[in-house]
C-alpha cells in the first residue's frame, strides 16, 4: 500500500468498502493506458506521468514532452537490441527496461520510430540512460504489455503526483502494486456452463471461467464423458484466430485443435482448455505485426523479440487454476511443449503422460516448426 494523499475528494479511499481494491486499481490503470490516457506511477516518493507510445497523441506528447522536466522513452531490452542502441549493453546491460532521455529536437515521429518496427527508423540519438531499471520503468512497460500494446512508454517526472492526478483526473497508483498484481496468479471463477453437441462428439459441455482481474474469459470444453477422478486426457490450447478459424497454413494450431478434439472423442472423453492468449500472449494486433516481420525474413521468436516482447508471454498457470476448479488433479497432456508440462507440475497438477500431437505440417510452416523445436524446445520428432 502507498501513503499518497487522497485524490478526487475521497478522504480515505483505502478504508472504504466500496473503493477499488489493488487489482481493480491496476485494471483501471490498464484500461486508461490502452486508450491513451496517462496514468501517474509512484515509487518511494517519486512520481511520473506515464503514457503508452502506441496510443500517444500529438497533443498529449506536446504537453508531456514540452514541460520543464525531461521526458524519457522506455523500451524493453529486446527492442533496444533490435535497433542496436548504444550504451544499454554496458551500464544497463542487465536492465529489463532501457530508458532514453528525449533529445530536444525529438518529436512524436522519432518516438514512434524507436518503438514500432513498421515506422521508418531514425538512426540518431540512440544513447541509453545507463541507470539500472526501476520499479517505475518496469511497471510502465508491464502496463503497456498487459494492455496488449507495443511495449514502449513515455514517462515524465512530476513533483506532486497526487495534485497532478487530481487536477487532470488521472489514475494514480504505486508501481509496486502494478508489478505485484500483473505477475500474480489469478483465480479463475466459473461463471456459466452449457451443453454443446459437436461433430466430434454429441456429448459436449462448455464451461466459461473469468479471472478475478476482470480480464477476458477462458473456456474449458468437455468432449465426451471424461472421468475427472482419473488422469484426464487434456489439452491446453492457446487461442489462434488465424489458425483455428481461418485455417492458416503458417502454423499448426488449427490442426492441433481439431486433432486434440478427435483424439479425446475417440478415447471416450477429454478436456480442452481454450485459453484466450492470442499470439503467444501478445494479442492479435501485435501478432499481425510479428507476421509482417516474418514476411521480411524474421523467424517467429526473432519477430516477437524485434517488437520488444519475450519469446513467449503466455501464462499457463491459468490452465492449472481452471483444472483445479474442475476438480482435476491428474492429466494425460496432449502437447509437444515441455514447458506446459513443467508449469502444470509446478502448480500441483500431476502429468502422468505426455501424448504427442504432431500434426499440421505444411510447406508454409516448415521454418516455424523448426524454430519451435530449436528455440522453444518443442518435441516434434
Characterize the structure shown.
- The strands form 2 sheets. A 7-stranded mixed sheet has the order 7-8-9-11-10-12-13, sandwiched between helices. Strands 4-3-5-2-1-6 form a 6-stranded mixed sheet, with helices on both faces.
- A hairpin with an 8-residue loop joins strand 7 and strand 8 (204-211).
- It has 2 domains: 13-182, DHBP synthase; 188-277 and 314-376, GTP cyclohydrolase II (Rossmann fold).
- It starts with 21 loop residues before the first helix and ends in a 5-residue tail after the last helix.
- The protein has 381 residues and is an alpha/beta fold.
- It has helices at residues 22-35, 58-65, 77-82, 108-115, 135-146, 161-167, 175-183, 241-245, 253-267, 278-281, 284-295, 300-307, 317-325, 338-346, 366-376, and strands at 39-43, 46-52, 71-76, 97-101, 152-158, 172-174, 188-195, 204-211, 218-224, 232-238, 269-275, 330-334, 350-355.
- Helix 5 crosses helix 7 (175-183) and helix 11 (284-295) crosses helix 12.
- The protein contains 15 helices and 13 strands.
Write the layout of secondary structure elements.
Layout: H1 22-35, E1 39-43, E2 46-52, H2 58-65, E3 71-76, H3 77-82, E4 97-101, H4 108-115, H5 135-146, E5 152-158, H6 161-167, E6 172-174, H7 175-183, E7 188-195, E8 204-211, E9 218-224, E10 232-238, H8 241-245, H9 253-267, E11 269-275, H10 278-281, H11 284-295, H12 300-307, H13 317-325, E12 330-334, H14 338-346, E13 350-355, H15 366-376
Parallel strand pairs: 1-6, 10-11, 10-12, 12-13
Antiparallel strand pairs: 1-2, 2-5, 3-4, 3-5, 7-8, 8-9, 9-11
Helix pairs in contact: 5-7, 11-12
